[in-house]
Design a protein that fits this description.
Length: 299
């Protein structure tokens, strides 16, 4: 067993397919199957269930996958650190972003960074705040940008950029011509929330708690697993919600959605650069963080 076998195994898990994993690694399907059999022989257990239409990790496979991702992240960090020691900016960096920074901020930063350092390969993982924090703590990600703080002595978090949230409604909603509403008006209106683990939901909850209210006081009509799903839900009149204006910038410009303030409710929040305190920062990650701060301060 070596890291290459683990790399192929991870691709099978991520693509849920031997053939797609082979395409990603430029290997034939029989070669991929042979690598998986070698791993299963090495560990003495089945790692992948070959179902009719997809390859699914067993419980042992899920456990191996979590460790394999950490090993490969550590391997990439080792290579980039040695390159940095030699004065060469070359290697891989795996970073994460919760939904808003991951979809609306970090792609631009990654693009400008790789123009400066073309020999650096960056992988951007997008998930909710809880997922990004957990994968930063476990070592899968070297750094992340998330929409909420977490009290954990293993974490280093610092404010990176401010974000403005607003109550978002369809333009033909009964409040479409208003600029603000009172909080009590909001409480009876069908409201779409994000899932638990979302930084947006946590920020809304904290800001409501600060004035004596909670999520349970809202008339929650549905819960959706992504900002895009909430945005589409609003447009389809499934309810209204509080979102970052970054997520609906185009809709606001074209006039299909409207953004309102809520009297007495603070809708400001911050995005946080997040790292594991016990993990030494690689030269590539350090360069990326400096570049990101320069780009965002220049905005």
């Amino acid at each position: 067993m070596d890291l290459w076998h683990l790399n192929i195994f991870c691709k099978v898990v991520e693509h849920r397919s031997f053939s797609k994993a082979g395409e990603a690694a430029y290997l034939s399907q029989p070669t991929v199957s042979s690598h998986i059999r070698d791993l299963e022989s090495h560990f003495g257990c089945r790692l992948i269930d070959r179902l009719s239409k997809e390859a699914v990790p067993t419980k042992a496979g899920e456990l191996l996958y979590s460790y394999a991702k950490k090993l490969m992240a550590l391997h990439d960090e080792m290579k980039s650190s040695l390159s940095g020691f030699q004065g060469i900016m070359k290697g891989s960096l795996v970073i994460g972003g919760s939904t808003i920074p991951g979809e609306y901020i970090l792609p631009r930063i990654v693009g400008s960074f790789t123009k400066i350092y073309p020999d650096v390969k960056i992988s951007l993982v997008i998930g909710d705040t809880e997922k990004i924090i957990n994968e930063t703590l476990s070592g899968i990600l070297e750094a992340g940008v998330v929409g909420a703080e977490k009290k954990d002595k293993m974490l280093h978090q610092e404010i990176l950029i401010a974000d403005e949230m607003r109550l978002i409604v369809p333009s033909d909603h009964k409040w479409g011509e208003k600029k603000s509403i009172g909080l009590k008006m909001l409480l009876s209106e069908p409201f779409i929330t994000r899932e638990r683990g979302s930084g947006t939901l946590k920020s809304i909850e904290q800001n409501l708690n600060a004035i004596g209210y909670g999520i349970d006081d809202l008339n929650v009509s549905s819960q959706m697993g992504s900002t895009e799903a909430v945005r589409q839900g609003i447009k389809c009149k499934a309810g209204i919600s509080i979102l970052s204006t970054m997520a609906v910038e185009g809709d606001l410009k074209e006039g299909s959605l409207k953004a309102l303030t809520i009297e007495g409710l603070n809708l400001k929040r911050s995005f946080y650069l997040t790292r594991n305190r016990q993990r030494s920062i690689s030269p590539i990650c350090n360069a990326f963080i400096l570049h990101m701060k320069n780009e965002l301060c220049g905005k």
